[in-house]
Automatic annotation (TrEMBL):
Belongs to the glycosyl hydrolase 74 family. The keyword Acyltransferase does not apply. The keyword Translocase does not apply. Pfam families: CBM_2. InterPro entries: CBD2, CBM2/CBM3_carb-bd_dom_sf, CBM2_carb-bd_dom_sf, CBM2_CS, WD40/YVTN_repeat-like_dom_sf, Xyloglucanase_GH74. This is Cellulose binding domain-containing protein.
Amino acid sequence: MRRTPVLTAVLGLAAGLLAGTPPALAAQPVEKAVPSASIAADTYTWKNARIDGGGFVPGIVFNRSEKNLAYARTDIGGAYRWQESSKSWTPLLDSVGWDRWGHTGVVSLASDAVAPSKVYAAVGTYTNSWDPGNGAVLRSSDRGATWQKADLPFKLGGNMPGRGMGERLAVDPHKNSVLYLGAPSGKGLWRSTDSGASWSQVSNFPNVGDYVQDPTDTSGYASDNQGIAWVTFDESTGTGTNATGTIYVGVADKENAVYRSTDAGATWSRLAGQPTGYLAHKGVLDAANGYLYLAYSDKGGPYDGGKGQLWRYATATGTWTNISPVAEADTYYGFSGLTVDRQKPGTVMATAYSSWWPDTQIFRSTDSGGTWTKAWDYTSYPNRSNRYTMDVSSSPWLSWGANPSPPEQAPKLGWMTEALEIDPFNSARMMYGTGATVYGTENLGQWDSGGQFTIKPMVQGLEETAVNDLAAPPSGGAQLLSALGDIGGFRHTDLTKVPSMMFTSPNFTTTTSLDFAESNPGTVVRAGNLDSGPHVAFSTDNGANWFAGTDPSGVSGGGTVASASDGSRFVWSPEGAGVHYATGFGTSWSASTGIPAGAIVESDRVDPKTFYGFKSGKFYVSSDGGVSFTASAATGLPSGDSVRFKALPGTKGDVWLAGGASDGAYGLWHSTDGGATFTKLSGVEQADTIGFGKAAAGASYQTLYTSAKIGGVRGIFRSTDKGATWTRINDDAHQWGWTGAAITGDPRVYGRVYVSTNGRGVIYGDSSDSDGGGGGGTDPTPTGACAVTYKITNQWSGGFQADVQLSNTGSSTWNSWALGWSFPNGQTVAQAWNTEHTQSGAAVTMKNLGWNANVAAGSSVSFGFTGSWSGTNGKPTAFKLGDQSCTVN
């Protein structure tokens, strides 16, 4: 999967949007009738619209002392923990908020073998200006359920070149308070001696690296020094809790790639006799037989690499042996994926990570690299013989709907295969990451016995797509249509199931925009990017099947596209060409007049002749089907192009516009006269998306949804009263980094909202408020009935995680709350979220925070905590809200 090296739609925002508090806004109309927005809490259940995978997984890490404990890292979509009982992954970094969106990029993971409940993540997405924040090392003592953060004085690059090398973060396998981190950008090697709480540079480490992918790149993306690539401890050189004596460090330097310390990091030296001319992507040590294996490539990856070698270093004698499975002259790829079988010393496997055509390759040796076998080989070219079979029935889109000619096959074994791990407790299980998924097998032993092992996706729960646009038609079989980076997009008829195929005919590498005809939802249009071929496509059956349109001259990218409300015509603003319109299905496009190239375009949802556009602070209107546009006289709108706007279904000329930047106008605007004038909602400090969903019971206006900052809090908000009041419907545990590309409610299900993320897929939320209470809170104190659901969601030796839902089953709104209970078995609370907690003995009190104080009648508030236990972990049996006893569910 070719991951674009920029945050979708964020780069234009980064300088202003994430820079802090906005200054005073320029004078503009303010909707006088709308009071400042208040915030109330609602209880939402959040899930992914299942796609399963969809992006690059550069790292998989198994714990070396606890069976079935494994983690995966992604380049932009956070980290995950393996759940053996369900054979699925649990996301661990959904708590990363808007202001630190870069911390969803994970450059390295480390799982503590001494204390398996501890896990560490080195986070940061870009080392250049695209990410305004520095990196950090996150540490958790509850397997990633909650985190503490140590900020670093430099940036990290989870989505930078070289991100498949590693692992750059490592825990001493004996003295686990000691960790090392390899830094990029010439920042060197760093060490923590207090379990990751603080870090300092290892001042005497002799080499900060010098390899850059492209020194001429002025953006800083490809021209950054890839730095320190990996850290590997030789556990045989330590005893008890004494620091491990021998440490190997890989450096992005083709002439000086490997260094060693034999005195627990006090001194360092270049490893004598090592190969030169290559980068060491991985260094994996098999302490049982004293071999350090190294995978080399001539490039940093994950896309590039034309030559490679595998080497073995004997730690006792210092002997180097070239164990490459093929001659260097016969490689057209580099090596990176590298693993050993901890149950069978001498068994080693490696990948040809950059073999894009006809497929990746996996190599296996059972004699420490003396001889090798391949996952596939030619019989007589172009025919192949595979040692494996592939079963992608759980994610059938992985075939891309392709029917390639030999020697290519569909589905492919993979590409960008830099993560490869044999389960240290189970020789039959192997997992490896690709650019699109995590594949694995549980009968790897068939490789050596002459049978075929079965490869399947092992990716359920790991959702890594970047979302550009979303649409929820009011009728038809599609619940949701999505425009995605890298894999195009999907039509979901069931949110809980993986669609059989992405959009095809054509397959856009990235879909940038999509729309449907409001009064004829069978008609759908999408625009996107394709290396060669059309950039627009149409469907007449609600997105089930597609056919390509024709591009006007000069088109280089998808841009934005809009359908007339009845599907009779379309307006398209592609990259590389100006705004165009077409009647029918885009067989002939004509240039629109009066609107600048690059404008964002949308349609009125009632009048098929009315279209709208926005560019650089100006709003444009066409009343003749896109033939001509006229600039509106509206002023005070955001001056840049970080804007999204939509017209309300069912009402002509009702337009909502969100966007801006912190150095200028920023917020949410509303027009009821087709964009002739706009009024700014006074209670919304910042807003980046706007969407509509089914109206609440008794409401005359559709429900509004936005990713915004209201009342000083960043979140996902809902209004059932036309923006007069707002409810924050997510919480601090569910933030998903950057959510500024798209949002839409569901026109058929009240309260359901679909949220775009940049790397965590399509998130959807369902409300416990099934018909819709008020948008905000009122004044009464907590009186009347209450109900509590207390659920232990995770438990491990000595620790547990619990979620609590407190429901207002009375008839009036609370404006504060404090819930108390007593633990039956001496449990203690360690950390809590979405609440302020106190504990005295067994008695615990959980109080509201500022943003979730108001709980409407019929609504709920949720919070959670981690705690410790011993012996028994019984649930509390009684709960009180003040002096009111609550029903226990």
